[in-house]
């Protein structure tokens, strides 16, 4: 009888241990699933799960559990990282911290673009995807020289030339560049009469000459002498400078009349910059090709206003392009958590940031309940959730007849190329292309009518070749 009691006791103990183990496993799965959901909800808009983000990264503020927890909770505003204390409890932040710590020890993922078939069949256009350039980091601007060479700006502060014989050459002579956070060497643009005058324009984050912690968006023009920049002229520098490392803009576009349009982000000061005309941030600007201010700019004669401002109330526009038939300027723009936009840019108009928005704070809290207000423009299109649009072009020419005059923009967050079909000034249809291809940083049309797509981390340039 004594042995029977012992055996029964052992059985009950093992059953209890088994149940506890099952409960612990179930609880751990719930925590893991919740942490993964929160990571997707709060983190992937700015970070991805490839080796460029948490795997093999340099941890500026420490890689220990408490270090990561502190950064998530308190944020690093000057680096564009919001604090989540107002929206997440400490327990949830620790769950998220543990999830990120598991990510950082994962083996690096391979180049996921290689898993895609080279032939893509979209809704109404078949095409092949060719990798033209590889081995890059974060390619930002693309521009094609008349001889067929491709200029590539790396956000890290390098200007590269990819030659017709497939050599990648470095161009020297760049000005000082604050390559940190979202700053660095940004967009490229050739003068419409480049063949006659040789002017190359580029945008970059320009550091203060005395205090290198301060910087803001600048535009310079220069000429190429072989692989060296000469005749350099800085034709614009945004004010005020800031020690924050995000929301620089900046995309460049010439219109038919030869005016240069470009975007400057709000530089992380949404409560002051975008709605005030006495600064350059949160604006789209228009200048002459040499930096002079057009007489008919909407605020050229407004006391206290920056005369280069063309439109205002913007957050961080990273796509500026001209419609090939109407000649009107369009832009795409990063919202906060939700509320990315496509806008038709018109002189003197206020696009509402941050007074109106379809988004919320990154930590889930609300900063405005208004999505419309008298005197403020509505977007042509907005995305909720945010796709993180970057780069923008209209499809020109006849190589893609079923896409003619459609908008193409990249999605950093969801890693695809986004196509918008227009009817007049309205988006009547959308399509996702190249899903899972990687973070799309830019999309451009070449002079001979092909679509080129810039992917980051690992950086490469793709060419979409249409197939009948």
Explain what this protein looks like in three dimensions.
The protein is an alpha+beta fold and 468 residues long. The chain has 2 domains: 2-103, Cytochrome c-like domain (Cytochrome Bc1 Complex, Chain D, domain 2, Orthogonal Bundle), CATH 1.10.760; 117-467, Neuraminidase, CATH 2.120.10.30. Helix content is 15%, strand content 33%. The protein has 4 helices and 25 strands. The strands form 6 sheets. A 5-stranded antiparallel sheet has the order 1-2-25-24-23, with no helix packed on it. Strand 15 (317-322) and strand 16 (329-333) form a beta hairpin. The protein starts with a helix and ends with a strand.
Q: Please identify the top-level CATH class of the largest domain.
A: Mainly Beta
Strand proportion, as a percent range, falls in 25-35%
Q: Overall 3D geometry?
A: globular
CATH fold-level label of the largest domain: Neuraminidase
Q: Which structural class do the helices and strands define?
A: alpha+beta
Largest sheet: 5 strands, antiparallel
In DSSP terms, counting alpha (H) and pi (I) runs of 4 or more, how many helices?
A: 4
Number of DSSP strands?
A: 25
What's the gyration radius in Å? 25 Å
**How do the SSEs run, as a string of H and E?**
HHHEEEEEEEHEEEEEEEEEEEEEEEEEE
Helical percent range?
A: 10-25%
Overall pLDDT metric? 87
Distance between the termini: 86 Å
List the domain count as a whole number: 2
The largest beta-sheet arranges its strands as 1-2-25-24-23
Low-confidence runs of at least 5 consecutive residues: 2-8, 106-117
The name of the CATH architecture of the largest domain is: 6 Propeller
The CATH superfamily of the largest domain is known as: TolB, C-terminal domain
């Amino acid at each position: 009888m004594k042995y029977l009691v012992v055996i029964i006791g052992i059985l009950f103990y093992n059953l209890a241990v088994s149940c506890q183990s099952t409960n612990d496993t179930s609880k751990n799965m719930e925590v893991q699933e919740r942490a993964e959901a929160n990571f997707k909800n709060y983190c992937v808009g700015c970070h991805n799960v490839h080796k460029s983000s948490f795997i093999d990264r340099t941890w500026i503020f420490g890689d220990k559990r408490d270090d990561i927890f502190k950064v998530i909770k308190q944020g690093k505003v000057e680096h564009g990282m919001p604090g989540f204390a107002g929206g997440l409890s400490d327990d949830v932040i620790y769950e998220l911290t543990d999830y990120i710590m598991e990510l950082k020890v994962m083996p690096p993922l391979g180049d996921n673009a290689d898993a895609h078939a080279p032939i893509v069949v979209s809704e109404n256009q078949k095409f092949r995807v060719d990798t033209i350039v590889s081995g890059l980091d974060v390619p930002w601007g693309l521009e094609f020289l008349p001889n067929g060479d491709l200029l590539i700006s790396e956000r890290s502060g390098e200007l590269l030339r990819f030659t017709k014989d497939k050599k990648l050459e470095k161009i020297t002579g760049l000005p000082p560049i604050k390559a940190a956070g979202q700053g660095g060497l940004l967009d490229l643009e050739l003068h419409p009469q480049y063949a006659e005058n040789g002017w190359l324009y580029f945008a970059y984050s320009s550091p203060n000459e005395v205090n290198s912690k301060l910087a803001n968006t600048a535009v310079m023009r220069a000429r190429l002498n072989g692989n060296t920049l000469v005749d350099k002229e800085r034709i614009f520098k945004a004010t005020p400078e800031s020690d924050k490392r995000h929301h620089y803009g900046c995309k460049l576009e010439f219109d038919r009349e030869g005016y240069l349009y470009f975007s400057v982000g709000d530089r992380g000061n949404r409560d002051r910059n975008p709605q005030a005309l006495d600064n350059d941030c949160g604006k789209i600007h228009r200048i002459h090709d040499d930096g002079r201010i057009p007489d008919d700019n909407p605020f050229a004669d407004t006391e206290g206003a920056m005369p280069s401002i063309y439109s205002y109330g913007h957050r961080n526009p990273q796509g500026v392009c001209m419609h090939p038939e109407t000649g009107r300027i369009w832009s795409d723009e990063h919202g906060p958590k939700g509320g990315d936009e496509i806008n038709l840019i018109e002189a003197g108009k206020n696009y509402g940031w941050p007074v109106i928005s379809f988004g919320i704070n990154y930590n889930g809290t609300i900063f405005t309940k208004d999505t419309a207000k008298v005197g403020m423009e509505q977007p042509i299109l907005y995305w909720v959730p945010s796709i993180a649009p970057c780069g923008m072009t209209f499809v020109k020419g006849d190589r893609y007849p079923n896409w003619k005059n459609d908008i193409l923009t990249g999605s950093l967050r969801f890693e695809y190329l986004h196509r918008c079909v227009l009817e007049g000034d309205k988006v009547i249809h959308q399509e996702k292309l190249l899903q899972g291809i990687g973070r799309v940083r830019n999309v451009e049309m070449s002079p001979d009518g092909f679509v080129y797509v810039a992917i980051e981390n690992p950086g490469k340039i793709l060419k979409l070749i249409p197939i009948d």
